[in-house]
Every structure is written in structure tokens, then in C-alpha cells.
């Protein structure tokens, strides 16, 4: 009997996925309906799969000491909230302004959910809680995508742009072109990649990198919104987490031109998870890489 009542609750929860402007989408999430999401620090450590092949096993950490609350409200109901330290130029102005270029961190970094059996999911209390949590996560992504579509978003066009950005950033990294790289990534990410280039150049004199097209697979894993003005829902940043599965060729050389790593005659299957970010309140905003996730 408890199982049937739970199934009824789950159906009701799924019906809320029909997103509308007047609905309180995330009100069912206990952590968001009751108050501010307390997140003192966010980390994204990049090793192994997430690291570019020329970083020599290096790691990158995205860290934010959070100081200013950035909530998103809807009809006086908090949908999601986080906190971020304002950039220096905004602090000089005395408050966080909409001229902010990037929040500087990944909000709710993607992590894969542990699989559970059908029986456990539908006939145990822990399974019902897990189903509710999974549904809320999907609703948050659906809400972000819905808001993005109002700005003219097309998944197919975005995927083409994301693949081009993925190829461009990897090529710029291989060539050590920091000036061009700055335009394709956020300020925080540029600082990290610049250090990676410096480290790579201290080990290898030159590298060859190539992506074999077409890509094997690309898919969206998560979408999140970050608000900058509680009184204006249009002033938000969006972050899309994408998974790339591609075949790549890589080769590294020393100062004498001798091969010291890799083999460009061989294709290697590489899985990367990158997070792209865009402001939805700047007319000329464009997608930039804001982080990479390693699982």
C-alpha cells in the first residue's frame, strides 16, 4: 500500500516537469524551499580524463571563497541559490553589478548518480527519496534549458558551436597561443590554462594535437542558472555541462625535434567533461569554457 502511495506521489512530482512561468518549480526540494543553500567552497579537481594530454598529469583546481549571496527567486519563492565572491572591479563599485563577466566557479558540479535496482527504487523508502532527488535534479536542468530557449537556444546549433570551441581551445593550448585562448575561456579558467601551458613548455618544446572528426558522442549532462539580482530574474548566467567522446591524435617533441611522448599515427578515444558558461543578460555574450570535470 505504501508503494502505491509513493507511486502516486512520484507521478504528481513528474507532472510538475511541465514547466510554466507561474509554477514554483523547485519548491519540492527541501534544501531549496527552506532557505539558502550553504556552500562554503566549491572544488573541481581535474586529473586523468579531464586533463589535456600535454599537461603531464597535472591537476587544476577551481575554488571560490564565497561572500555574496546570489539567489534566484520566482514569485517570492527561492528556486536556487548560491554565493560567490564578487570580482575586484565590482567590489570597487561598492556592490555586485550586472557588468560581472563570470561567477568564477562551477555551480553544482556534475557527478554521476549511483544506479539502483527497479525494486529498490519503487518499493523502499530510500528508493523513493532517491527518485525524488533525481527528479528535482532533472527539473533544475529543465528549468535552465527552458529559460535558455527563450533566448533563441537550439541544441543542434549549440552542439556545433561547442565542438568548434572544444577543438579551438585544444588547438590553442597545443600551440601555446595565450592571447587567442583568453577570448575563449573565462578569466578564472584562463589563469589555470596559462599555468598549464607554462608547465607543458618546461617539459616539451612542441606538441601536435588533432581531433578526428566527427566526434563520437556529445551530450548535455547538466544545466544550471546562477542569478546576480534577486529582483530581476533575467540577470542570470547559465552553465551547461557537456560530455565529449572523441578520437584524438597526440605527439610531443623535445628541443631537438625528437618524439618524447605520444604517437600521432594512432587514434586515442578520449572522454572529456567540460562546462560552458554564458551570460543571459548581455546582448553580445558568447559561450566560454569555465571549467572541466574529472570523474
UniProtKB/TrEMBL annotation:
Q: What is this protein called?
A: Large ribosomal subunit protein mL45
**Keyword Mitochondrion assigned:** yes
* Keywords linked to the UniProt accession: Mitochondrion, Ribonucleoprotein, Ribosomal protein, Transit peptide
What coarse category fits the chief subcellular location reported for this protein? mitochondrion
Gene Ontology cellular-component terms for this entry are:
mitochondrion; ribonucleoprotein complex; ribosome
Annotated Tim44-like domain ranges read 139-294
Is Cytoplasm tagged as a keyword?
no
* Protein family: Belongs to the mitochondrion-specific ribosomal protein mL45 family.
Q: Which InterPro entries does the protein's record reference?
A: mtLSU_mL45, NTF2-like_dom_sf, Tim44-like_dom
Its domain of life? Eukaryota
The listed locations are: Mitochondrion
Amino acid at each position: 500500500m505504501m508503494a502505491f502511495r509513493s507511486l502516486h506521489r512520484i507521478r504528481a512530482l513528474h507532472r510538475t516537469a511541465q514547466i510554466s512561468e507561474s509554477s514554483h518549480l523547485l519548491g519540492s526540494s527541501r534544501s531549496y524551499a527552506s532557505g539558502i543553500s550553504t556552500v562554503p567552497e566549491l572544488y573541481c579537481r581535474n586529473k586523468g580524463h579531464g586533463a589535456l594530454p600535454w599537461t603531464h598529469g597535472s591537476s587544476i583546481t577551481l575554488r571560490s571563497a564565497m561572500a555574496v549571496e546570489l539567489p534566484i527567486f520566482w514569485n517570492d519563492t527561492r528556486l536556487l541559490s548560491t554565493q560567490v565572491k564578487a570580482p575586484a572591479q565590482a567590489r570597487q563599485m561598492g556592490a555586485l553589478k550586472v557588468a560581472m563577466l563570470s561567477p568564477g566557479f562551477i555551480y553544482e558540479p556534475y557527478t554521476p548518480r549511483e544506479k539502483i535496482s527497479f525494486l529498490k527504487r519503487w518499493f523502499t523508502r530510500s528508493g523513493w527519496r532517491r527518485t525524488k532527488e533525481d527528479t528535482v535534479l532533472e527539473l533544475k536542468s529543465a528549468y535552465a534549458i527552458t529559460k535558455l530557449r527563450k533566448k533563441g537556444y537550439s541544441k543542434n546549433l549549440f552542439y556545433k558551436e561547442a565542438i568548434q570551441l572544444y577543438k579551438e581551445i585544444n588547438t590553442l593550448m597545443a600551440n601555446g597561443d595565450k592571447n587567442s585562448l583568453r577570448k575563449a575561456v573565462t578569466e578564472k579558467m584562463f589563469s589555470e590554462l596559462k599555468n598549464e601551458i607554462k608547465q607543458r613548455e618546461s617539459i616539451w618544446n612542441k606538441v601536435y594535437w588533432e581531433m578526428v572528426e566527427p566526434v563520437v558522442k556529445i551530450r548535455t549532462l547538466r544545466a544550471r542558472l546562477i542569478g546576480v539580482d534577486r529582483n530581476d530574474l533575467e540577470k542570470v548566467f547559465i552553465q551547461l555541462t557537456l560530455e565529449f567522446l572523441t578520437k584524438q591524435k597526440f605527439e610531443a617533441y623535445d628541443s631537438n625535434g625528437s618524439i618524447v611522448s605520444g604517437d600521432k599515427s594512432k587514434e586515442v578515444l578520449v572522454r572529456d567533461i567540460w562546462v560552458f558558461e554564458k551570460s543571459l543578460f548581455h546582448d553580445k555574450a558568447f559561450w566560454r569554457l569555465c571549467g572541466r570535470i574529472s570523474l
